[in-house]
Here is the input.
Amino acid sequence: MPNLPSLGLRNRNNRAPRTTPRAPAPTSDYVVDCAIYVDGHRVEGTWNHSDAVDEVRRRGTGFVWIGLHEPTEQQINGLADTFGLHELAVEDAVHAHQRPKLERYDNTLFMVLKTVRYLSSERRSATSEIVDTGELMVFLGRDFVITVRHGKHAGLAQVRSQLEADPEQLALGPSAVLHGVADHVVDTYLEVTEAIQDDIDEIEAEVFEPRTKIDAEQIYLMKREVLELRRAVLPLTKPMQRLAEGYTPMVADEVRSYFRNVEDHLAKVSELVGSFDELLTTLVDATLAKITLQQNTDMRKISAWVAIISTPTMIAGIYGMNFTSMPELSWTFGYPGVLVVMLVACVVLFKIFRRNKWL
Here is the structure.
């Protein structure tokens, strides 16, 4: 596709869009897979992006699916020129750190999804992340779909294999790939929420278990990760609704019903994440109350022992003043008598505090 005139547009860095051709980087440097699909079946052969799109347009049917992993700006330039990708979308795909969204640039759809992965307790420390996040961008055109993945997880090999095993679904075109990607991402949301639910259930049981010591840091860490998951899930709700409602003719009518199913799953995840946030807030309050109660109990014990120890200390202090005229100074049994008084006073105070459950 020829380069489009810049029309005076500028990107986010206030740079004018490029109009000169950009040389593509070697395919093996950044392309995970590049394939042609005709009538739902993969065309045999090894293709680079330019040969693949030429073959599809020569046939007049089918589409190209290219998968990329963390490409640099220089590496993605060749694809941007070949498929006519918009400057702003390309910039987002390279630099990542975007919120989930759906944008339309002329005849191309650009969608951003957040990917998540649950880290089991064996793979994390006390202060490490519980949910690892990444990003997945999808460029959707009439005869192509390009997926750009950031992060070491959420690979799309499984999605590609499942679609290739279902030629009838894949024959619906590039929008079927977009649905497969979105469905895969939302399914991982469900898996992560189920794992987090188990963790929260354990924390809840520990918080309300009598005579257990709770580490509030663990709950704060869990709440932080739930908020991270919430930032990945909630912004995706509106884009998924738009795809299910026929936001663009590039999404086949047969595929829109599938997006409604993904939207339902996403709504379930959103409800779970919201309930997690509320429950963790309640657990934080309960933990703080339990810690305060424990501190009050400890203070009562300290106060009780101080009162017990202060009695013999007071008596010893009185008789240590060394006045000449003091009772029992010349009494033979004065010293053992004072010791007995100290012991009896301590035992009486100990029983009183024990009966009142201060000790």
About this structure: Residues 66 and 105 are 19 Å apart (CA to CA).
